[in-house]
Amino acid sequence: MSIYNDIERVLVSQDEIAAICERLGKQITADYQGKERPILLGLLKGCVPFMSDLSKHIDLPIEIEYMDVSSYHGNITSSGDVKIRKDMNTSVMDRDILIAEDIVDTGKTLDTIVKLLRHRGAKSVEVVTLLDKPAGRVIPFTPKYIGTVVPKEFVVGYGLDYNELYRNIPYVGVLKPEIYKK
């Protein structure tokens, strides 16, 4: 059985993702000119494909860091309980931080992480996201850099998962409801 059979439809194609990464990378390059060694911070695991492709289009010396945070815990909706499973190895004091995220949905996880980084003394904290799902927000949150806006549907692929599966699909697709309503 193919994982592709579980996809109802393609929402963001490989070509669209490539164009988004190029566009956002150029915008970030322009905006971060003159900043000393900004940190591109990925929130694991979903960020990996996006952060990898995005970073290829950022023409600046950047430092790359990761945090493993979650508020989904195997569910299809955020629990609101943000857990940090792996913290950064680098101090953020007086540093410009750009959080790379696969999707901004409820806003809870990012709100918590942004506040934490500011508390730790970051000079600036911004968010770049491949996908923005404003219809899913439970708290006000607007990323500075948005790849594309998606409807309130359950999406997987290109790093996004359901029960740790489907991350390896090279595009973003809508998961068939019968898969997660079992």
Structure description:
The protein has 182 residues and is of the alpha/beta class. It contains four helices and nine strands. The chain has a six-stranded mixed beta sheet. A three-stranded antiparallel beta sheet has the order 1-9-8. β2, α2 and β3 (63-70) form a beta-alpha-beta unit. The model has no long low-confidence stretch (mean pLDDT 93). Keywords: Cytoplasm, Glycosyltransferase, Magnesium, Metal-binding, Nucleotide-binding, Purine salvage, Transferase. Belongs to the purine/pyrimidine phosphoribosyltransferase family. It is an enzyme of class 2 (transferase).
What is the CATH architecture assignment? 3-Layer(aba) Sandwich
Which CATH class?
A: Alpha Beta
Number of β-strand runs? 9
CATH topology: Rossmann fold
Low-confidence stretches: none
Compressed to H and E, one letter per element, the order equals EHEHEEEHEEEEH
Query: Which structural category do the helix and sheet elements fall into?
Result: alpha/beta
Number of domains: 1
EC number: 2.4.2.8
Enzyme class: transferase
Keywords: Cytoplasm, Glycosyltransferase, Magnesium, Metal-binding, Nucleotide-binding, Purine salvage, Transferase
Organism: Paracholeplasma manati
